[in-house]
Write the structure tokens for this entry.
Amino acid sequence: LAEVGHAAIEAGARTVNIPDTVGYTVPAEFDRLFRYLKEHVPGIDDITLSVHCHNDLGMAVANSLAAVGAGARQVECTINGIGERAGNCSLEEVVMALNTRAEFFDLHTNIETTKLYPTSRLVSSITGMHVPRNKAIVGENAFAHEAGIHQHGMLQHASTYEIMRPEDVGLNRSNLVLGKHSGRHAFRERVKELGFDLDDLETNRVFQEFKKLADKKKDVYDGDIEAIIMNADAATSGPWKLQELEVQTHTDQPATAAVTLLREDGTATTESARGDGPVAAAFQALEHATGVALVLRNFELHSASIGEDAQGEVTVTVDYDGQSYRGHGTSVDIVEAGCRACLEVMNRILRRQQSGGAGPGRPSPEQATI
């Protein structure tokens, strides 16, 4: 390996990457490997030594940090640790490890840490890969303390059980934020605090969706606002918009659904269908109305916030004409959320057909690959 590295440097390489492509190594072993290379490869101090780790044994971050401690100065990593098989080294974990243990590593990055949580949410929304609650740094439970002794310690001094502040990664402590009487200025400030940078047009569009939501539920939480922002483009991009949805279900009988879609030119179309459940019936009605027949591969439902009236975030993965698509939708009605997710995909397909190519909107799964 030292000979190969030396040959690459002699040939003009300015960055040499040492990968653990199958996630097999362990930190002490990787540390020895990098120290050996630093000692035995001529010219290695004149190039950037890089590391690329996979997480098959759950040690991608630990191995990457071991390499950094032994001289690596570039870490190949991904937001939320997404990647092939068990994933790659997690960017936010490496960054916050270097940040939190600065006295140990004596190194820093130029990453703006307050953007970590918003970026994590954005990547999760685009890829449809939801972040586990117990995920380090950006998981919902990362800064939650349930044990009584932990709560007592937190009240006495936050650093007792909290080695990082939520604000450091862009997660604000305040959860309950706004209601139906909240104004545009308060909403805009809250959006900024959550790490989103919206122009006036985007703010106005998202604020209208917020007011609609506030009419349906008493309290609007940070997660609700994030869900609105993540899905704002999908909710407004045509050619079809969901105007009405009616669903009927009966025990031991097929469900029925009727949807009314509004076209960009103002004309409306109403179609109905039956299915094994309300989601199946609603999706069938959408297919009748749009003429786009999809094959549903996966349907995921997550709560955007807390409480019985929390918004449901639905991610659907579907096949159409040999290609895979993902759609996202939110609503306090989970069937409606599913319809919005399905309709987002249908609109994207129809726009592509109209333009003869990959029209605007959310990236396809291939484009969203990181």
